[in-house]
Each structure stands twice: as structure tokens, then as C-alpha cells.
Amino acid sequence: MKMNWKATLATLMIASLAFSAVVPALAEPETGAVETAQAASDNAAVSTAAAEPEASASDAAAPATTETPAPTAADAAAPVATEAPTAADAAAPATTETPAPTATDAAAPAAATEAPAPTVAATAAAPVVAPAPAVYPLNGTVQAEVKSLSLSKSTTGTTIGAAVRLRNQLTQMNRVPDYELRVTTSDGSVYTLPSSATNQKSMLAKENADMTYMVKVDRQDDFTVTSVSFVYVDEYVYPKLENTLLTIPVTNVWNASKADITDPYANKGWGESFAIPGSVSPLRYATVGYSEQNNDKGRAFVVTLLVENTGTGQETMGGFRLDGKTDDKVFPGKLVEEQAVQLAPGEKKYVHVAIPVDNGTVLKSMFLMTSEMYTAPAAAGAQPQAASFDVGRLKIAVPAEGTGSVSSMPAADYTMGTPISVDPLSKLIDANTEVSLVELTMHGTDDDGYKTVVAKFKLNNKSGMTVAYPAFQTEIAGSGGAVYTGTRQNMTLTNLMPNLSYVVSYSFMVPDTEKGDQLSIRLLDNVTAAPYNTTLAALQTAVPLETDSDTMSFYPFTVKLNDWQLNAQTSGVTGQTLSYTYKMKLDLTVNREDNVVVDQNFSKFKMELVDGLGRTIGSQSVPFTGTNKLISGEQIVQFTNLKTDQLEYPLTINIYESIDTPNGEADRLVKTLKQ
């Protein structure tokens, strides 16, 4: 009996111990799984555990507030939406620790960690919209996105460059995991890309970190990159431990030796709005201007882009360029603006890209290019070497061949004397300054072999303060499409006074065949994008038909010829050689428009004497301002220093408006008188 109750008590104690062991196992199945897998890994020669071991000495040096666990196989299987863990999640590391894989899992790590390429469903009727960047879970607190991949050949090999964006999902500082980045090529080769020495070591709460990697391999054959992998390597054990945490398939790889972009989402038509892929900036761009220009720097295509800040804060435009492509060659372009371009919320600005080309080049398309900066790791005490690799982001169509120049301000029908519609985004012409075309004339002679077009503009400062004189340039396009650059009169004017108008003239040399019945006149800004021009305004007009009238226009002056008389005078001693001069008596009425200012550089009233053979034998000019200016009433004009020593009769008197330009004198024929 004594033995029986002792046996019963022993049985109960054994049962109680067994039950105590069972309850924790039921409550924490994952912990048990970790212990089991850990025991198995201790007996293995090479471990492929998904959980990262305890931080090494180098990890401890990096600032971090949380452990960075590796993802499970299920987590790494597909892209995920970006969602930060809650504070409760961050405070419970035991529940977020990732269990190590079993022996079966370790046998096939690639299949478990392969991330499928994202797909976008679309119907035929839906607009083509670029898919959002594919973001994949790298570990429990960091997500990864491949920004770009680049291949560039040179005589020394092929450079492989990669740009990756890491996203911190925590609401506190997080360490950037020091995983290796490896790429797999189309022939199965695997390359490890060293990290840039300037890559971030930590990320602030909810911050993104843009990381660059680059390597040069001694290969000249054709290949491409098919996937990018993040690999955890523990070099503090032997043999070293390697675990592929995430593999991302890639299809868009920029190959500089085969420059092209076939992705339909990355192909943009002319004038189509776009954002720069891989950028988080809210800036949007659109091509609005395209012209071929030739100056002392050579021939170039100049592309104007309209930039708009669609965000809520001030933005600084990132660096990019446009490269031009022909059938067999790529011409690198360059952003003309050298200073940083900043835009306030909702603001719009123009930026310009110049693409230097060879003579006769016809571009087929353009590539929007960005550069990723890379600094090679250097030995202690050595100077780091900075480098970069280019990435083609978008393919942009050029205007249709034969279209010619495309302007942000197309030519509009114009009524003489009315204000010209100037691009509101222009900074060259003040918003309170009105520009109008007040005179347009054309003339030529058989001896010249060409015609001269003179365009006269009025600048009216409507404001109550002084504004800068807008030194714009001009050009005209004739009926055949050829473009002719204008020459501005000599000017000393720098400011426009309030509530006053000023006059400036431009002259153009055009072929003798030009009729002037269909002229396109463009006002150009040659300051903002110097040394190139951009269009401020464009107008379509025609040269008015000339009428034979006694009232002549020299805007802002009108001169009415009431009467005239030309007499010859002789000088010398009888019996010796006589010399002749001519005296012309004019009866004029000179009127001037109020509130229009002219200076000593204003055009002059010029008269030429022409003999019966069409030879000019003398000329004289009279200014409209200053000493000896043209006045109302009788005025005597003396012709001396003649090119003949004989008395000529009859003579023809040509009256011109003479304009002094940096290229010499430009004359506009106003009236012809005959004896």
C-alpha cells in the first residue's frame, strides 16, 4: 500500500513536467522552429539561413536603432506596397524575427527568393500609363527598387552600372544593410558590383537612399543583364556564409553601344508631357521648341522644354540632357542653363538643350539621359576617384521631317501697329512693356542684286517705373521658308522711361525674288539661352503696298514735301577747269508723334543724286534730331564732293531713310524725284 501511493505520486509528477514542456511549444511554434533549424545549421558545413546573424564589428559602427532581419521566402516572392510597421511592431522584435529555413528550403534558395516581374493589366481602350516602380521587400524594414542599369563599352572593357533605391519603412532611423549587389548576365555570368564610397550608411525615418554600384569587366562581346540580386555574406566564419535574400528580374537595361529604348511606356511623342523616370521630383516636362541654329560654336539643334512644378514646395531641377540620334550615330547634348533652375509651386519655366551636330545632320529621335555618380572605394590615405555612368530614360520623337523649326509661339496673323503677343514666360521683355510693329518696307535696285526689308518696332513702357531696354533679336522667314537674321540699328539706350515709347529698327537682306507678300517675323531672345536664340513672339504679315505720296513716313516722324527745286552751281576761274555743286531747296512740313523718344542713333533723311546712266554722283544726309536737324519750312541741302566734274542733267533724286547698324548703313527707299 505504501509502495502504491508512492508510485502514483511519481506518475503525477512526470505527467506535470511533460505538460509544462508541451504548453510553451504550443504557444510559440515559430520559436521552436527556429531552435530546430538552428540545431540543424550547426551541424551543416555551409549555412543558407535566411536570418542575418548577430551584428559584426563593422555593423556596430553604423548608426542604427533597430536590428535588420532578413525576409522570409514568402515575403520575397513578390513586390509589395510600401507600408511602414506600426510602433507596436517595432517594439516586439520577438514576433518579427524571421525564422531560418529548413534543410529543404536551403537546398533551393533561388526558387524561394526569385521575385516575379511586375505586370500591368490594360485594355485596348485605356490610355498608356507607365506602371509604378516595382518595389520589393528586402527585409522586414527595408524595401528595394532597381532605378536603372547601364552597359557601356570602351577599349578597356565593359562597364556595368546599377542604381538602386532603398526605402526605410520605419518611423525612426534605420541602418542601410550592407548586402552585396550582384548581377546575372544573359550568358549566366555573375558579377559583384562594389558599392560607391559615397553611398549612405543609414536612413532617417521614412527616408529613401539612392545607392550606386559599378564594375568594369574585361569583355567586348555582346551581353545584357537579366537580374539583380542582394546577397548577405558573412566573412567572419569559415567557410563563409552566403545567402541570396532577393533576386529582381530586369528587362530595361541601357546599352550605350546599341542606343535604343523599346519600352512603350518610355517612348514619348513630340509635345507629350513626361516626368523623369526614377525621380521622385514632381517636376513635369514637355518639348515645345525645336530649331537648327548655326553660330561661331558650330551647328546645333536647340530644344526648348517647358518645366512645371506640380508639387507643393519649391523644387530644384535635377541634371539631365538630351542626346540626338540619327540612323547610325548619337550626338550628345548639353543643358544650356548653367545655373540651378528652381521653381516655386505651380511655376513654369523654359529650359534649353543644345545638341551639336555635323553639317547636314537630320535627327530621327532624342534620348533623355541622366548620369549616376559613383565614387570608387579607395585605400586609406588615397584620393577617391569619382566616376559616373549614363542611363537612357526616355525616347522622345522629334517634329516630323520637313516641319522645320517648331516654336512655343507659332506665328499668328498680325495687324500693323497693334501690340504683339509675347510669350508670358519670357523674362527678357517686361510684362509692362508693349512691343508693336509700326513700319515694314522692302525695296531693291537692279544694281544691288538683293532687296532690303526694314522693320521698325515701337517699345512702350506702360508702367510707372523705369524698366530695362529689351535687346531682342529678330528674323524673318520668306515665302520659300528661308530664314534671314535682322541687324539692329546702333543703340546706346539701356532703359525705358515710364509712360514713354521708343523706336528701334531692324534691317534684313533678302533675295531679289522675294515679294514680301507672306512674311513671318520672329522676335528672338538671344540672352537667356545664349549663344542660342529662343522665340519670344511670331507674327504673320506682308509688306504693305507702296503708294506715291508727298507725305513720307519715318516713324515717329512724318514729312510732307510741299515743293522742291534743284539747281547747279559752278566755281572756278573762266578758262580753267570748272567744278560743279548742287543746291536743293526743300519746302517741308515735319510732324512728330508725341511721347515717342528718339536719340542721336535714330535714322536720317538721306538724298542721293543719280545721273542718267544710273550712277550715284553725290549724297547728303540730314538728321531728325540734334544740330542741323530736318525742320518744317524751307531748308537748303548742299551737295558737294561730287563724283563727276561735268554738269549733269536731268538728275534723279532718291530719298531714303538711312539706318546705322553694326554691319554698316542700311537704306530704305522712301520716294523718288525726277527733274
Describe the model:
- Residues 44-111 are annotated as: Disordered.
- Keywords: Signal.
- This is DUF4179 domain-containing protein.
- The protein is mainly β and 675 residues long.
- The chain folds into four domains: 136-255, Immunoglobulin-like (Sandwich), CATH 2.60.40.1240; 264-371 and 390-397, Sandwich (Immunoglobulin-like), CATH 2.60.40; 410-541, Sandwich (Immunoglobulin-like); 551-674, Immunoglobulin-like, CATH 2.60.40.
- Strands 1, 2, 3, 8 and 11 form a five-stranded mixed beta sheet that branches.
- β41 (652-661) and β42 (664-674) form a beta hairpin.
- The protein is elongated and about 120 Å long.
- Mean pLDDT is 80; it is low at 5-10, 14-77 and 81-127.
How do you describe this structure in short?
With 675 residues, the chain is mainly beta. It folds into four domains: 136-255, Immunoglobulin-like (Sandwich); 264-371 and 390-397, Immunoglobulin-like; 410-541, Immunoglobulin-like (Sandwich); 551-674, Immunoglobulin-like (Sandwich).
Mean pLDDT: 80
Q: How can the largest sheet be summarized?
A: 5 strands, mixed
Q: Which structural class fits the helix and strand makeup?
A: mainly beta
CATH T-level topology of the largest domain? Immunoglobulin-like
Supply the CATH class of the largest domain: Mainly Beta
Binned, the helix content reads under 10%
Give me the Rg, rounded.
40 Å
Enumerate how many helices there are, as a single number.
Answer: 7
CATH A-level architecture of the largest domain: Sandwich
- Beta-strand residue percentage: 35-45%
First-residue to last-residue Cα separation: 163 Å
Shape: elongated
Residue runs with pLDDT of under 50 for 5 or more positions:
5-10, 14-77, 81-127
The figure for the number of domains is 4
Counted beta strands: 42
